[in-house]
Amino acid sequence: MKRNLIDVLCACAAIVSMALVAQPAVPRAEQPHGAAASAQDTTSTKPKPEDTEVWEPVPKVVTPGVTCTAPPSDAIVLFDGKNLDEWVSNRDKSPAKWIVADGVLTVNKAAGNIETKRTFKNYQLHLEWKIPENITGSGQARGNSGVFLASTGPGDDGYELQVLDSYNNKTYVNGQAGSIYKQGIPLANPNRKPGEWQTYDVVWTAPTFDTDGSLKTPAYVTVFFNGVLVQNHFQLKGETRYIGQPFYKMYTSAPIKLQAHGDHSEPISFRNIWVREID
User: Fold this and answer.
1) pTM given for the model
2) To pair with 174 at 20 to 30 A between CA atoms, which of 55, 66, 134, 156?
3) Domains (range + CATH), the chain
4) How far apart are CA 152 and CA 87, in angstroms?
C-alpha cells in the first residue's frame, strides 16, 4: 500500500516537471525588474494635461451690451423703441398696427396678435414688459398677454410664456406670470408692482421631428423673470392649450408672437426686445 502511494506521487511529480519544461521561456531582455519596471508602468499610465485639452473649434467673439439688458453684438434687435419694421400681423401678415410712442410698444387689442417677420429655431430672447399702473380687473382678466416662443399658426397656436399682473393677483398657478401656460408652474413669483418694468430672459430649445412628423425630441425652456430663475430647462408636453391637452405638431422654424389678449383691462406695453440665434 505504501509503495503504491509512493509510485503515484512520483508519477505526479514527473507530469508537473514535464509541464514546466514545456512552457516557453521569457527572454531575459523582456523581463523588466526593479526600478525599471516601476518607471515603465508609471510612464505608460500617468495622465497628462494635454489628454483633455480641446483647441478647436474656437468660439466666436461676441461683444456684450453696455448693460446686461442691452443687445450684444450678434443680437437681432426686434424692437428698439423706434418702429415695428420687424413685425407683422399674425392674422394676415400685414404691417403690425400696435402703438409705438416714447420708445415703448403698447398693445392694440383691436389689431390682434403680432409676430416677427423672421422665423427662429433655437435662441436666447430678452424682452421687457410693463403692466399699467392703473390696471383693473382680477385673475386672468388683469393685464393678460403672452410671449409665444414659437407661433405655429393663427390666434394662440404655439408655445406660450404667460404675461400677467401676478402682483397680489390670485389665479391658477400654471397661468400666472412666468408660467408656461397650463403646463409649467413658475419656481417663484418675482413680480414687480404695476407701473414698473419687468424682464424676461429666455433660452428656447425647439422640438425636433422625424420625417413622418412624429416627435423626435421635445421642446425645452429656461426662463429668468426679473433675474430670478422661474423655469429650469422645463420640458414641454406640446403646444400650450387654453382648453384640452397639449400636443406637438411638426414645424422647423417659427416666428415669435406677442398676444393681444381679449380681456377688458388696460393694454400692457413692451420695450427692448432682442434675440440671439443658437446653432
Assistant:
1) 0.83
2) 134
3) 76-277 (2.60.120.560)
4) 16
